[in-house]
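Task: fold both queries, return tokens.
Query 1:
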Amino acid sequence: MKYLITLLGIVLYFSTIASVVKTLVIPRGHIARIPKTIDIFIEFIYKNLCKTTHSYKSRDALRSSQAAVNIFLDLLVWVIFLLFSLSFMLFPSQQSFGNSIREAGASLLTLGFVSTPTPWATIVDFLAGFSGLVIVALQISYLPTIYAAFNRRETKITLLSSHVGSPPWGPELLARTRIGIVDNQVLGIYREWEEWAADVAESHSTYPILLRLRSPDPYSSWIISLLCVLDSAALYLSLSPSQAPLETRLALRMGFECLRTLARSSGIGYDSDPKPTDPIQLSFSEFMTGVDRIASVGFPIERDPQEAWKHFKGWRINYESIAYEMAKMIDAVPAQWSGPRLLTSSELKTQRVINRTPDDTEGSSFEPKQDPNQH
């Protein structure tokens, strides 16, 4: 029986080490079983805690700790699994299982106050000490890596909010091209977000915990910001195809490829080759709300809205379902055109930039009557 327990310990040990390596070392974009189970458990707890909140802002404040709890529990569970696996491996050389746990813990935490002078126990003690050091070292290097990726992500989101308002909305980005953002800035935004999407696809699939790291501003979100840029590009190509720069297509393509990469790593299903005529969840009336906002500032529209709607659907079908599911999964801010949430939330309209002057101390949001060169 003792040798069967030892075999169980060996299997548990290598399974745990494989989970650590798969999560922290191998950049394959797949979530290991232990972190995935922990994420499901933590999400269940937070979802039920969020039912006690009364506003999205308080819900966001509660969820701001979710990623940190996930990281801590991953480390804790790995250490516990290693402790028990090493205890099972030491059991044949001990008089009791309690002594096995005591020696395994002392070796794993590199305390070294207990040891058994037998060849097998010495090997296990060395293995325990090595395992403890490796996990701590990997975790220490893991945290700066994910926070560096988080900071790169949030910089572009903050810049977008300063251009568009918060939470960002695709039609508002196009509207601002006529009342604040000049043409070369628009091209720069699409170029930057093409690169941003490529970076997020690589970093967030390699380290999925980044998906749950929330922006400091409760009304900002990486998925809502990406959806804003994709919708603005799709609107541009649908309403004014001859004037839309090449950068809109490139940003749009990289954007939905980014979402598909994240969907694969998160286990979200999607149609890899949808037809342009397939239905989308966004309604035509919602689409017209966006078109009216764009038209109100004099944005050049070449196509009739009914005709443009068919083209817009053909673009949005490539990313809508993934974006909606991702926004629901991380409980992103309920912005316009971003789909439903697990908990009922009122849709938040974009708070536009306010322009205050000595002659108008109350200020007003940028509207078409203003000078396009005024900021």
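Query 1 returned. Query 2:
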Amino acid sequence: MRSKKIEDLKKNLKLSEYQREIVIGLLLGDGHLETQNDGRTYRLKIEHTFWQKEYTDWLYRVFERWVLTPPQEKRQIVKGVEYCKYWFSTVSHGAFRFYGQQFYRDKRKILPSLIRKWLTPMVIAIWFMDDGSIKSKRHKALIINTQGFAKNEILILIDILENKFNVKANLRKQRNLYQILVTGESAKRFSEIIKPYILPSMMYKLGLLGNKIA
């Protein structure tokens, strides 16, 4: 697409409240904002393994007007193992600048001070689809991978889950990093909060709690 058409396209783009919630959930998870002009504009990049293609395609449909090239595959070799990824990115736009300022400092992802206000069932659901899983088939407990955040930031998230949503969670150490462990006693409560927003293809992340009868 020619640059003038791209600029004309950008003029008509505005994030809806629905898209804003999804952006927040993605940035808590695996989503990234990238800037090439010192923070004046950002683009949203979304990348998952190929077997999560349905989830990535759904996100693409949410942001389709913001994307010039549909999702595409790429292959990566990490420590001799080949991985197939599926990704897309939006155009760079000033609408993402606020979230870039809130979620990044010195090129590192941080927890925004507004997160207590922002955390909603839908935001948590997106976050969980991005970075959550069952602890194991033998446990009811659920894991949220938060290794990209500092310990004190993760403790804030745990506090919000408990005091805003009545979900008990603990800090789980993984080497020098930390995950959130939603306790077995709160796993059902947590799943009931987010299930209305979880895609059918991602229900497996809730284990048995993803079943309709749970």
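Both queries returned. Flag for query 2: The longest helix spans residues 151-165.
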